[in-house]
Automatic annotation (TrEMBL):
Belongs to the histone deacetylase family. PANTHER family: HISTONE DEACETYLASE 12, HISTONE DEACETYLASE HDAC1-RELATED. This is Histone deacetylase. Residues 18-281 form the Histone deacetylase domain. CDD domains: HDAC_classIV. InterPro entries: HDAC_classIV, HDACs, His_deacetylse_dom, His_deacetylse_dom_sf, Ureohydrolase_dom_sf. GO terms for molecular function: histone deacetylase activity; hydrolase activity. The keyword Chloroplast does not apply. The keyword Hydrolase applies. Keywords: Hydrolase. It comes from Dyadobacter luticola. GO terms for biological process: epigenetic regulation of gene expression.
Length: 299
């Protein structure tokens, strides 16, 4: 079985005007245990990440203000969280969970973070519930420590990974691929190495066809020795802000395409869960659990 980063502080209250489901961070591990997809020994909790690893992708002045709780009110409104000392700990633990999971994936093939996927956090700013970019930090960590020489970031959240694109805009060893809603947040997009914008109401057939035509060729051309997968489930037709029309089965097939391809090429994968804002929490849990079910079958 595969390692899963989890810590109780992953669940964190947001401003009242942004009360999207955060209970998934508690309920998803319970579902995985109930089904036998994971056992208690699969879960690990990380200490807060060291700041040098954070500075490798985020500007020092911004990162220091994050951990010291000195972001302005305007910055926090853009992020959507309430600023408390526990928030900095949460962000650093999430980032370290992704770093440690990435290192473990070299042995297990795949590793997960129950949270993470904080792809809107850029070099010197946070937004959209993202303060420190966990997969960007982990990708840079692998490069800096000689664990990988070419990294592919596959971002299939409905929102463009603008922060990730900005961080790696001038880093040829990281290829950023984002497939997202063209009319959705963020409304000012950054430029990834490959962006595919999808129209509102895109459903399973079109979504899976485009992904199936794109990703194998991308892996063949980029030749990554590590993949980070941002597996947001806000592409579902039930999502309150996603604007897509994918079904639970389509979302599951998406995960299968990504993970089977990585397995076929013996490329280790770290998977962070990303967004999901359906009205019914059970649908969010089911969609996220499908990613783990697919991984358990393939790996």
């Amino acid at each position: 079985m595969f390692p899963i980063a989890y810590h109780s502080c992953y669940k964190y209250p947001v401003h009242k005007q942004h009360r999207f489901p955060m209970d998934k961070y508690e309920l998803l591990p319970q579902q995985l245990l109930r089904e036998g997809i994971a056992e208690p020994a699969n879960f690990f909790s990380s200490d807060p990440l060291d700041m040098q690893s954070v500075y490798a992708v985020h500007e020092r002045e911004y990162a220091d203000r994050v951990v010291q709780g000195r972001l302005t009110g305007k910055e926090m409104r853009r992020i959507g969280f309430e600023q408390t000392p526990m928030l900095a700990e949460r962000e650093l633990r999430i980032a370290n969970g992704t770093v440690r999971g990435a290192l473990m994936a070299f042995e297990t093939g795949i590793a997960f973070n129950i949270a993470g996927g904080t792809h809107h956090a850029g070099p010197a700013q946070g937004e959209g519930f993202c303060m420190l970019n966990d997969q960007a930090i982990a990708a840079q960590y692998l490069l800096d420590h000689g664990k990988a020489s070419k990294v592919l970031i596959v971002d299939l959240d409905v929102h463009q990974g603008n922060g990730t694109a900005a961080i790696f805009a001038h880093e040829p060893r990281v290829f950023t691929f984002s497939m997202h809603g063209t009319n959705n947040y963020p409304f000012r997009k950054e430029i990834s190495d490959l962006d595919i914008g999808l129209e509102d109401k895109t459903g399973d057939s079109t979504y899976l066809r485009i992904l199936s035509e794109t990703l194998p060729a991308l892996v063949a051309n980029v030749k990554p020795d590590f993949i980070f997968y941002q597996a947001g489930v806000d592409i579902l037709y039930t999502d309150k802000i996603g604007r897509m029309s994918c079904t639970l089965e389509g979302c599951r097939r998406r995960d299968e395409i990504v993970l089977q391809l990585a397995h076929n090429h013996n490329i280790p994968v770290q998977c962070s869960m990303g967004g999901g804002y359906s009205e019914q929490l059970r649908l969010i849990i089911e969609a996220h659990a499908n990613t783990y079910r697919v991984a358990a079958r393939i790996f």
